[in-house]
Amino acid sequence: MPETVQIRLDGKVLECPVIVSTENEKAIDISKLRSTTGYITLDPGFGNTGSCQSAITYLDGDKGILRYRGIPIEQLAEQSTFVETCYLLIYGRLPNSKELDAFSTAFNEHSMIHEDMKNFFNMYPSSTHPMAGLSAMVCSMSAYYPELIKEDPTEEEINRIAVQLLSKVRTICAFSYKKSIGDPLVDPRHDLRYVPNFLNMMFSSPTKPYKIINEVVRALEVLLILHADHEQNCSTSTVRLVGSSHANLYASISAGICALWGPLHGGANQAVIEMLEMIQKDGGNVAKYIAKAKDKNDPFRLMGFGHRVYKNFDPRAKIIKQCADDLLKKLGIRDPLLDLAKRMEEVALKDEYFISRKLYPNVDFYSGIIYRAIGIPLNMFPVMFAIGRMPGWIAHWKEMIEDPATKIGRPFQIYTGPTKHDYVPIEQRS
Ligand code: SDX
After folding, report:
1. Going by CA atoms, what residue is nearest to atom 15 of ligand 1?
2. Is 325 helix (H, G, I), strand (E, B) or coil?
């Protein structure tokens, strides 16, 4: 493999170094291209462009591989917890028992939100999408914890913001749900760990305590682990870009939440269920909707299918599908949407259109079935994705801000507008 590649342009020659990753991925460093040749590259959607070097997550789209700090996602889903996975992603290694206990205890100690923040819930209409409230409240945490929003936070200050965010977003989400159904807010409890605490805040009430079922806790734990990071996806790239201007971590995460909200990204888990409900209501005609998904003149797409990177199965989808089966069996739930989703997958995976485009179920195709079984409302599905992705966003922001090579993100463009022409006074315009 060459150590450099040559770019010859208008009589100039640029030697570009070849960068090789620890997993033998290869990149051409073109950072001197514009200053040497005056040319830029153009790559809409960045399908061929690396934005940074990172040690956090590795994925291989062709082989369906996903590892956090080198550990396969299958092992973490089987043996780890979400809090332990947060530690692994943010600090680069698994914690020992003392560190894990201290980390988990810090989550409990920081699980309350400032009392004044509860007023936010009175200002929004009850119909507000919880991603709007979450993004606004995360950004507003900078107002309630101003001592932490310095341009160059210390490691200790970053650690404190990280724990604040990881713990409080769970409370904010549960409170927004309670507010939307007119129930009194249920505060976090010091004696419950991360996931049971969230479920209790979501579903218990003064007249009806929530019965914590281990299988439900484990299913949600696995979902949060599987969503925790995914290298340079749209929302994580947003967090890095906003953070590169030295915007504080709260502001950067708030921007990531907004990027995740889109139905092509983290909003897809909600869009999948809406799609399945629509197909079910229309008689469950799988062939009709597979045909619509293939029809270029039809805006319908098979939500939860396809991925920018995975051109083979999404390893997370396989685990989530099995988790959905197991949980529904344990709870004695028969969800017709799960049967419909399985039929859609079966037909699509045998269809040339999907095979030739390497379109497989992604992380969002089956996750909504589990959220439904737990009782989480549809418009909170993207919020669950945000809670899961929080450690990944924080880890990438921290890696970016600690990298001395980081520069403010500022891409160029190819201008396609009008060439120079003079201003025309209003009286001379037609
Ligand atoms: C997430 O990037 C990440 O890592 C994201 C994520 C993470 O963990 O952060 O994995 C989470 O966002 C998962 C993706 C959730 N989104 C959806 O499920 C929405 C439905 N999927 C599509 O919109 C689409 O597949 C994308 C957005 C996910 C990927 O789009 P790409 O890579 O830009 O692919 P493309 O649009 O260029 O599609 C290539 C071809 C096109 O057909 P042709 O023009 O070649 O004829 O495949 C077709 C597309 O029309 N296609 C689909 C399709 N997805 C792609 N056709 C029907 N249904 C689909 N879902």
Report:
1. 265
2. helix
Chain segment 28-72, per-residue pLDDT in tens = 999 999 999 999 999 999 999 999 999 999 999 999 999 999 999
307 catalytic residue (yes or no): yes
Q: Between 97-109 and 155-180, two packed helices, what is the crossing angle to 10 degrees?
A: 50
Place of tokens 């200053």: 35
364 carries an active-site annotation: yes
Q: Place 416 in a pLDDT band, splitting at 50, 70 and 90.
A: very high
Q: Is 186 helix (H, G, I), strand (E, B) or coil?
A: coil
Phi, psi of 266 (to 5 degrees): -75, -15
Of 373, 255, 386, 359, give the one whose Cα is nearest residue 303. Answer: 359
CA of 81 to the centre of ligand 1 (A): 29
What is the percent of the chain with per-residue pLDDT over 70, rounded to a whole number? 100
d(CA 288, CA 370): 26
Strands (DSSP E) contained in 121-257 are none
Q: Is the beta carbon of 240 within 6 A of some atom in ligand 1?
A: no
Whether ligand 1 lies within 6 angstroms of the CB of 218 is answered as: no
pLDDT confidence of residue 373:
97
> Which parts of 253-294 are beta strand (E)?
none
> Which pTM was predicted?
0.96
CA atoms lying within 13 Å on the CB side of residue 212: 15
Q: Is the CB of 264 under 6 A from ligand 1?
A: yes
Residues constituting the chain:
430
CB count within 10 Å of CB 429 equals 6
Candidates 263, 344, 249; CA nearest to 299 is: 263
Q: Specify the pLDDT at position 147.
A: 77
Lookup: tokens for 182: 């007119």
